[in-house]
Amino acid sequence: MDRRHRDDSADNGGDANGQREKRPRPAPRAISAAEIAEEFAHHDSSVARINNGSFGSCPASVLAAQRSWQLQFLRQPDEFYFNRLQPGLFHSRALVKEIINAADVDEVALVDNATTAAAIVLQHASWAFAEGAFRKGDAVVMLHYAYGAVKKSIHAYVARAGGHVIEVPLPFPVSSNEEIVREFRKTLELGKANGRRVRLAVIDHVTSMPSVVIPVKELTRICREEGVDQVFVDAAHAIGSVEVDVQDIGADFYTSNLHKWFFCPPSVAFLYTNKSSASSCLHHPVVSHEYGNGLPLESGWIGTRDYSSQLVVPSVMEFIGRFEGGIEGIRKRNHEKVVEMGKMLAEAWGTFLGSPPEMCCSMIMVGLPGCLRVSSEKDAMKLRSFLREKFKVEVPIYYQPPKDGEVLEKDGNNCVTGYVRISHTVYNAEGDYHRLRDAVHNLVADGYNCDMLSSK
Ligand SMILES: Cc1ncc(COP(=O)(O)O)c(C=O)c1O
């Protein structure tokens, strides 16, 4: 009888024939509301924080794990550098590989954030223009609602190198994927006009502002049919808020932050590169000792710095494992709750949602009463600051110019030009959304509109 068998019998007992009865292991106890509150006790409890989308959130247990990695480095940096850093990063990459269903861990690099990932892909495109693989005037396509910083990156790297940048206009409010697909196809046609080639399509998985889930798999398939050379999916919000299967989506490059909806500390993202793609030789813009050894290794040492946010993925998995259904369960509950809260707000304010529920993830857009007269991006920012300062509500606001023919009526409620983007994640409670509802009701009842708010 080996030691393991003895231990098992001792635990489970056995009958006269030595047959051991299999006792089911007790299911791990799901995390309680009090434990969740403890994990996020470092949040400012006076604020209704319904903007997880911008910066994400990190629980105390993961912050403790991060601190422990930092101390390991500080205790004996040389030993850490030679023996622990790379195995630790490999472990995190291997976990990410499983979650996103990549074919190989070498397809997964860890980088600082989605902005860095975009720079890596776009730098690669700019070299293709500079070295003659792409012809000057060849097109790069991006969504009109691409993230502002990524748009600037496209201009900085690609337009400057001779690429012709074309935006896909997207309707908002949006009511179906077909509307998006139609506009995308039209823009690809435009991109291919005059014998031009479309070299790169940059497609968001979840747009930031306004927030809409984009049918990336279908758009990627269309790109393949239409001969687009490369597809880069900017999925900064994806992991933890939508299902991610990179093989199924089929893009060349795909990035998601891990610090938004996946509970990593700021900041870490993965950049997936399909190894069968012709252009898998990306480089990190910060060149160091590992240059030429593949992006995952290049990214694993970009000089002396703190790598702890990249090393805590196993601890994040532990945290997520305390929730019923793991990350899938969290994702599903966040979606259901954000839709419920969005509908509650729209009904209370007499407005509507910016997209059908199936086109949103853990964030949803809700129209603000037209009488608040949000008439510019500056107004949207003024109103956001006012909600923060006067009502302690943190929520981003989007300005949508009126469509042709629509006029902003002075006291009317029927022309919606401002939308809140509400988020839901594990630490949120219904009271957060009630506070927003009541704050807006107060403003309306007091006759406030954006013209009356100071712009400090
Ligand atoms: C679609 C999209 N892309 C890129 C980013 C940039 O993310 P980060 O600031 O973490 O680099 C964001 C941030 O919200 C985003 O929403």
Automatic annotation (TrEMBL):
Keyword Lipoprotein (UniProt): no
Show the stretches that span the lipid bilayer: none
UniProt cross-references to SUPFAM superfamilies, sorted A to Z: PLP-dependent transferases
Q: Name residues in a coiled coil.
A: none
What's the name of the protein? (wild Malaysian banana) hypothetical protein
* Classification via Pfam families: Aminotran_5 (PF00266)
Q: Which UniProt keywords apply?
A: Pyridoxal phosphate
**Which InterPro entries is this protein grouped with?**
Aminotrans_V_dom (IPR000192), PyrdxlP-dep_Trfase (IPR015424), PyrdxlP-dep_Trfase_major (IPR015421)
Q: Cite a single GO MF annotation.
A: carbon-sulfur lyase activity
Q: Where is this region: Disordered?
A: 1-28
Give the Aminotransferase class V domain ranges. 92-277
Species annotation = Musa acuminata subsp. malaccensis (Wild banana)
Q: Which domain of life is it from?
A: Eukaryota
